[in-house]
Write a structure and sequence with these properties.
Blueprint (H helix, E strand, L loop, with lengths): L1 H25 L6 E7 L3 E9 L1 E4 L10 E8 L6 E9 L7 E3 L10 E10 L5 E7 L5 E4 L1 H9 L2 E7 L5 E7 L4 H6 L8
Antiparallel strand pairs: 1-2, 2-4, 3-11, 4-5, 5-9, 6-7, 7-8, 7-10, 8-9, 10-11
Length: 189
């Protein structure tokens, strides 16, 4: 009788292990993910990333998910971190607008991505974010990122290179880790 119970317990344990492994592979990472990065230009810095979801998907390959990636580097003098850059990674080529700068020195235009974003259920705001060199990402400002962190949901609309709308949604988790890692506490002012 004891070997039968042991077999039953082992069978149940194997089933639960297999089920939990499949569930972990299928469920997206929740919350901000923190990693340490290093490169020749910025040295060692902390990178935070948050996966979102497509509400209105780009045509073609939709296996990737949109994500927000924020880099924060340590200030060697004060030993505090600071916001370096924030990037929306779409994974699909975006529509690039060539915007004339306010002050012209020669002939130069800046590649921008027009985005509409909505914090929670508030009115949409329009901004032009700098296009990434790969044309499938766009950089946002520290001010925009602080708005994102105060939200429960953050919705972003952009256009792909063909003019089709791409709608992305980010459920914003607790931002304490990111605020501390990038020294973004608004209450210090």
């Amino acid at each position: 009788m004891k070997p039968a119970r042991l077999s039953l317990v082992l069978l149940l344990a194997c089933f639960l292990f297999a089920f939990s492994t499949v569930a972990l592979q299928q469920s997206p990472l929740l919350g901000w993910q923190q990693t340490q990065q290093s490169d020749a230009v910025h040295g060692t810095y902390t990178q935070f990333s948050l996966a979102g979801k497509f509400i209105k998907t780009p045509p073609g390959d939709t296996s990737s998910r949109p994500s927000l990636v924020v880099d924060c580097s340590a200030n060697n003098r004060s030993h505090k971190s600071k916001f370096v850059r924030g990037t929306l990674i779409v994974g699909d080529p975006l529509k690039i607008d060539w915007v004339e700068p306010e002050e012209i020195h020669g002939i130069s235009y800046f590649p921008k991505v027009a985005v509409l974003y909505r914090v929670n259920d508030a009115k949409e705001e329009k901004e032009e974010w700098s296009a990434g060199t790969d044309k499938s990402s766009a950089s946002f400002s520290k001010r925009s990122f602080q708005k994102m962190l105060r939200a429960h949901t953050f919705e972003i609309t952009a256009e792909d290179k063909g003019g089709s709308q791409i709608l992305m949604l980010f459920d914003m988790p607790d931002s304490t880790l990111v605020e501390q890692g990038c020294d973004l506490d608004d209450h210090k002012k």
